[in-house]
Design goal:
The protein has two domains: 149 residues, Hypothetical protein af1432, CATH 1.10.3210.10; 158 residues, HAD superfamily/HAD-like (Rossmann fold, 3-Layer(aba) Sandwich). It contains 15 helices and five strands. A five-stranded parallel β-sheet has the order 3-2-1-4-5, sandwiched between helices.
């Protein structure tokens, strides 16, 4: 995200902002690619954003314009007073602009990430990015596996928004019971509140697409989640009790809610948030603790009041009587 006044200067002074190849659409894609890679290597996202908008802004043609990088750096220097970077960041920006086409790779991870973000968008001109010309491990993996969907599905977060913006939920034993028959008590209330307050949510499950897709649809969970990561997507060779940790950076997540302590420990080890929820196993705890869902809500939206309505002990007893035979009559719940 760059300062609005900088974007206005670019609109006024860059002849290439409307270019279909090297214009604003490309700049936005480079910013997105850079922010995605920065989740893995800690590159400076502010520098990445300014590089994305400055590196091609002073082009004079769509072909081999050898001087366009240095001209972009000079343009940045001309407008130094409105670029909200410190001196170290600003030098990284200008160095990245100067060398992004013909420069020798420096040790700076931020500059390397700038260049990888640019080269990962070569597909727009019909060129497949070559991993041998990329620096970062995740960039190389994307090129080798042609996994550009990870980039396409990623969005740059508004840096003015603090806190948790996207929550990733495990499916089995977290959202639903182990049989895939019921949604955890109180979960719909939690999901509804998060959605209505602008929180994005996704599901990350160790179940296969073939199993999970129909369950998610049947239980009415689709409307709450913007995407789903299935076992097929991240660990097709997983076996029961043994799978790769859920690296929620792939789905741009800020927080994971999971019944697996291993997965929670992993996301916390990479600087993200996690909530280890008690497994929802129907024959062990048919009525999961609602306090946990309220605690999750406080972690995500601390200033928004949220309380799940509890059922009376009498209603619970009646429901147990009806559970094996037929639904509880509506008049009893009123």
């Amino acid at each position: 995200m760059i300062a609005p006044e900088v974007l206005e200067v670019l609109r006024q002074e860059s002849a290439f902002i409307t270019s279909p190849i090297h214009g604003a659409k490309h700049w936005q894609t480079v910013e997105r690619n850079g922010h995605y890679l920065a989740n893995f290597n800690g590159a400076d996202k502010a520098v990445l954003s300014y590089f994305a908008y400055f590196h091609d802004c002073m082009r004079e043609n769509e072909g081999r314009d050898k001087g366009h990088g240095p001209r972009g750096a000079v343009f940045a220097m001309k407008h130094r007073d409105i670029i909200d970077l410190n001196d170290v960041q600003f030098k990284q920006l200008t160095d990245a602009c100067k060398g992004h086409t013909y420069g020798t790779r420096p040790a700076c991870i931020t500059i390397n990430t700038c260049w990888d973000a640019d080269r990962l968008d070569l597909g727009r001109v019909g060129i497949d990015p070559d991993a041998s010309y990329l620096h970062n491990d995740e960039a190389k993996r994307i090129a080798d596996e042609c996994d550009f969907a990870k980039l396409i599905n990623f969005t740059v977060k508004d840096k003015s928004k603090q806190g948790i913006n996207k929550v990733v939920f495990d499916l089995d034993n977290t959202l639903i019971c182990e049989k895939g028959e019921r949604v955890r008590l109180g979960m719909f209330e939690l999901l509804s509140s998060l959605k209505s307050n602008g929180i994005e949510m996704s599901i990350w499950t160790a179940s296969t697409r073939a199993r999970a897709e129909s369950i998610i649809d049947k239980l009415g969970l689709n409307e709450y989640f913007i995407d789903v990561v299935y076992r097929d997507d991240y660990d097709p060779d997983a076996t029961w009790g043994k799978s790769l940790p859920k690296d929620i950076r792939y789905s741009n997540g800020d927080m994971l809610v999971d019944d697996s302590k291993k997965n929670i420990e992993f996301v916390e080890s990479i600087g993200l948030k996690g909530f280890h929820i008690t497994p929802y196993i129907s024959y062990v705890n048919p009525e999961p603790d609602l306090d946990e869902l309220e605690q999750i809500h406080v972690m995500i939206l601390p200033e928004v009041a949220f309380k799940i309505k509890r059922e009376s002990h009498l209603l619970k007893r009646i429901k147990r009587l009806f559970a094996k035979n037929k639904p509880v009559p509506k008049w009893i719940e009123c």
